[in-house]
Automatic annotation (TrEMBL):
Organism annotation: Kitasatospora griseola
Entry-linked Pfam families: SpoIIE (PF07228)
Any one Gene Ontology molecular-function term assigned to this protein's record: phosphatase activity
Tree of life domain: Bacteria
InterPro entries: Bact_Sigma-Reg, PPM-type-like_dom_sf, PPM-type_phosphatase-like_dom
The entry's keywords: Hydrolase
Ribonucleoprotein among keywords: no
Name of this chain's protein: Phosphatase
Domain PPM-type phosphatase: 184-400
Amino acid sequence: MSGERSSGAAGPHRAEGRGERLLGELLDGAHELSPQLVAPLVADVVRGLGGRDPALLLQDYGQLVLAPLRGRGLAAGEPVPIDASPAGAAFLSGVPVEEPQADGVRVYLPLLEGGDEAGVLALTLEAVDDDDRRLLRRLAALVAELLVTRGGYTDRIFQAGRLEPMSVAAEIQWSLLPPLSMTVHRVAVAGILEPAYQVAGDSFDYALNDDVLHVATIDAMGHGLDAATMATVAIGAYRHARRADIGLAEIYAFMDRAVAEQFGPDHFVTAQMMRLDTLTGHLQWVNAGHPQPLLIRDHAVVERLESETTLPVGFGGEEPVISERALRHGDRVLCFTDGLVEEREPGGEQFGEEQLIDWVNRVERSQAGVRAVVRALSHVLKEQRGGRTSDDATLFLIEWR
């Protein structure tokens, strides 16, 4: 792009104007763009900006690699590991990465949309200056928006990130999930499910309504489709109650009735529901059979957030006690399901919460944002458990910023 500019004071303005026009054309045509035309349109815009070899790299379900989206005009190739790669560095940090090469500069741009990140746009330019960087950031934002909106009309984007066979139960669970992360002015969240391609009963949900963050993590009893069906009902009931603007105790009661009426007295879902006032840091929660969340301060676990627990939803528990805590700026709260700590190590001993806390402290010191922490923690814990995931496991991290 920089190589196309002529000398003289008017050169940069002409080049910048051309770039703005190309982005404008992309934006103007986006509302009626067919999903299969996203790839060639992105390739055309990159060429118009003086770039070459564009690639759209999307996160796989296991959050291990960035897989190329296939499409006319896009560079193909093998999946790129998220760890120890320029594309992965851009993805984890949310900041563009420039890699000098013999024939130019390879630029990796995180595809950010609404605080979540779908993947990375990669392209090569002869040289890069500040005008280029500004235009490329805008291009990446538009591409991210296209991927999110057009993803609802096609399977191709989902297929790009699917590198292993997926169970029907896992398909249901992934379709339930909100974006895996959100970063806004006062709060950031990130969650992960494992095993990614076989998960059944675990799920999470969240919503930021005005200044209040609502969060729920759940674990439906059993395995396979039965667990996935219960999780679907539990999440649906949670969303329905949450959107009625009722309190945590009423949300618990509504979820309890929904599960009991649908599945009978022998089935249950453990759950944890939270509300965080993002203006004041006031945290409220109801614990219905989950492990106690961990409070992280200055990158170390300082305590378990102890509370009275009530029966899992579906068992007809009494009105729950609502626990409360005032967070400090920068505090993080880690919610997790029992599959994370009840797994057996290779020697036969239970993994346990003490080991979890030890690894949280290690990962917190080595990673920055909540998304990178949750991802790294999930992977290192799986390694420490000998790669075993006989039960579903969920991690969900909240940061009051």
